[in-house]
């Protein structure tokens, strides 16, 4: 085997040619990359940097026999898709190709050249925007852009119509740039008068609300097909009232003002907080449609005027309105919030008549209505008739049983839900834990808690508060304290649960320390916090501190005492043997004493 020659000696290949050294290879690669860079700058039409001039076309390094073979043709940039490319001028295509070549460059030789390229790209984009907006303001001598099409090829009109129809879906709108290009194409093909309503809807779906309003202002005679989309675009603006009032005033001068679609869109007054104006527009309708009734009910609910929403629903149902699934859900939800059982049952009967009661959301809203109104048997009847049930329907029924004093039925339904493979949400698990708390079943509570991950208890205050309440009720104060310390997200309910649990289990000093820690963390005390504090005072027997906290609650924090606060004070005085003072406090209460207050006094009499 021949010895390998040292690096300083030349090496030869199998055919006898001399091989390049590593330094020569690096130099040739550097020259090749500089030639490629020089060709890129030349293809862009930009001045070549001084450092690359020897390697540019016609330079000293690139001249010779091999220079012609190293030249390459410009990269071909594909043209836009056929649906949007027809009608563009050759100048626009060259500008777009040139812009693509500038964007696709991999190397920038100097800061000055980069600045020149960016300035050139900015000028081209400004010219493109000007050319795009120029047809919107034609010269006076040109024919009207809103004139009907007469000599447009049928194929171009059909392709434009299909492209606009693709942008009407709210779930999959067209990109904003595509809609702008379609607008320019309609102007060039003179199709804007025929397809203006489709273009306005595509602009609204793509979020180009200002563009839609500026386009609508150019129409000499807007119709009931274009006004609703303009009004909907105005309602999406940060300050929709001025534009909405202008459109409303313009619609009053048109024959299409009485169209139900136009009047329904005028409920943008409700989004501005002007519910009375929205109600006035609704009263102008001779025959209100289902959509207009739904919009008015939703506006009343959003404004917090639930009783007015129920009254509007009752009036609409009495006039023979045939609700769809969306209207039925809105009406049932409003009746559940206002405890309007009569109007809710009327909406349920109308849903049964129109065969929309089998929809999952309608049946779930009906279950929630009966639960909120205390009709648990009717709620279970509707629940059993449901052909399919999701986690929300199961949770509504479990929560109804738990809140109406049927904890055993709530747990039976919860575990039946688990056996059917339905995963409960956090509120359903919290209702199951509260049912276990009422029954004092710690083992069932731990089984219910196993339905969700442990991290959800640490991150969700609803679950954490329910688990802390279960442990405190079952006497496992250490477990409750451990859950409280591990929680990463604590709200005021979690703090109050822990303070009340410590106070009722004989850890009054720890409860008072936790109140101080709560104030230092920036959490503001509420009236439920003082219930826990007064309970801690009652179980530790500190009468002076109890009166001090009670007066501070009224004078410093400006909370009006509830019957729960008076019950804690009566319990404190009765445990301390101050029965006469406790009885005097009961007589001085601004409200009627309930069984808890009298039970606290009787408990003190039994002790002393």
Describe the structure.
This protein is mainly alpha-helical and 608 residues long. The protein is built from 34 helices and 2 strands. A two-stranded antiparallel sheet has the order 1-2. β1 and β2 form a beta hairpin. α6 runs antiparallel to α7, α15 packs parallel to α17 (325-338) and α26 runs parallel beside α28. The protein is extended and about 105 Å long.
Mean pLDDT comes to 77
User: What percentage of amino acids are in beta strands?
Assistant: under 5%
Q: Estimate the helix proportion, in percent.
A: 55-70%
Count of individual helical segments: 34
The gross shape turns out to be extended
Low-confidence stretches: 4-9, 58-110, 133-152
The major pleated sheet works out as: 2 strands, antiparallel
DSSP strand count: 2
Largest sheet, spatial ordering of strands: 1-2
End-to-end CA span: 114 Å
The computed structural class is mainly alpha
Which value, in Å, is the CA radius of gyration? 38 Å
């Amino acid at each position: 085997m021949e010895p390998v020659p040292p690096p300083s000696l030349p090496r030869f290949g199998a055919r006898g040619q001399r091989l390049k050294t590593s330094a020569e290879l690096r130099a040739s690669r550097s020259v090749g990359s500089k030639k490629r860079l020089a060709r890129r700058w030349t293809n862009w039409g930009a001045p070549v940097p001084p450092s690359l001039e020897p390697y540019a076309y016609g330079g000293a390094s690139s001249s010779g026999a091999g220079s012609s073979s190293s030249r390459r043709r410009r990269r071909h940039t594909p043209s836009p898709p056929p649906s949007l490319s027809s009608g563009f001028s050759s100048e626009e295509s060259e500008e777009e190709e040139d812009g693509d070549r500038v964007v696709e460059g991999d190397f920038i030789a100097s800061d000055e050249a980069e600045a020149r390229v960016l300035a050139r790209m900015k000028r081209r984009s400004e010219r493109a925007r000007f050319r795009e907006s120029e047809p919107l303001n034609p010269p006076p001598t040109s024919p009207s852009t809103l004139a009907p099409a007469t000599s447009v090829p049928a194929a171009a009109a059909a392709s434009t119509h299909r492209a606009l129809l693709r942008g009407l879906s709210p779930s999959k709108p067209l990109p904003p740039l595509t809609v702008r290009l379609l607008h320019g194409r309609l102007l060039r093909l003179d199709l804007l008068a025929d397809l203006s309503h489709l273009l306005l809807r595509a602009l609204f779906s793509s979020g180009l609300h200002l563009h839609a309003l500026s386009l609508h202002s150019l129409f000499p005679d807007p119709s009931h097909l274009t006004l609703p989309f303009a009004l909907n675009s105005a309602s999406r603006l940060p300050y929709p009232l001025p534009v909405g009032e202008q459109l409303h005033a313009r619609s009053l001068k048109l024959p299409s003002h009485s169209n139900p679609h136009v009047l329904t869109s005028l409920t943008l007054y409700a989004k501005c907080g002007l519910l009375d104006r929205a109600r006035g527009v609704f009263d102008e309708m001779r025959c209100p449609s289902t959509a207009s009734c739904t919009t008015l009910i939703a506006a009343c609910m959003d404004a917090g005027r639930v009783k007015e929403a129920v009254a509007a629903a009752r009036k609409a149902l009495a006039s023979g309105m045939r609700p769809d699934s969306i209207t039925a859900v809105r009406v049932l939800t409003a009746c559940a919030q206002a405890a309007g059982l009569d109007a809710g049952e009327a909406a349920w009967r109308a849903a049964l008549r129109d065969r929309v009661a089998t929809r999952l959301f309608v049946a779930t809203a009906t279950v929630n209505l009966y639960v909120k109104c205390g009709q648990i048997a009717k709620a279970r009847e509707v629940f059993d008739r449901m052909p399919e049930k999701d986690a929300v329907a199961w949770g509504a029924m479990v929560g109804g049983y738990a809140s109406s004093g049927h904890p055993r039925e709530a747990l039976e339904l919860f575990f039946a839900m688990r056996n059917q493979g339905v995963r409960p949400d956090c509120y359903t698990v919290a209702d199951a834990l509260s049912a276990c708390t009422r029954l004092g079943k710690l083992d069932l509570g731990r089984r219910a808690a196993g339905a969700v991950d442990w991290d959800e208890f640490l991150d969700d205050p609803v679950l954490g508060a329910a688990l802390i309440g279960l442990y405190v009720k079952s006497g496992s104060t250490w477990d409750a304290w451990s859950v409280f310390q591990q929680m990463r997200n604590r709200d005021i309910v979690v703090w109050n649960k822990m303070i009340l649990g410590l106070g009722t289990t004989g850890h009054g000093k720890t409860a008072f320390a936790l109140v101080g820690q709560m104030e230092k963390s920036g959490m503001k005390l509420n009236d439920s916090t003082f219930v826990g504090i007064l309970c801690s005072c009652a179980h530790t027997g500190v009468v002076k501190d109890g009166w001090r906290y009670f007066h501070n609650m009224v004078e410093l924090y400006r909370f009006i005492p509830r019957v729960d606060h008076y019950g804690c004070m009566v319990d404190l005085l009765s445990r301390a043997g101050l029965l006469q003072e406790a009885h005097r406090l009961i007589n001085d209460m601004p409200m009627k004493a309930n069984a808890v207050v009298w039970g606290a006094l009787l408990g003190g009499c039994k002790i002393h």
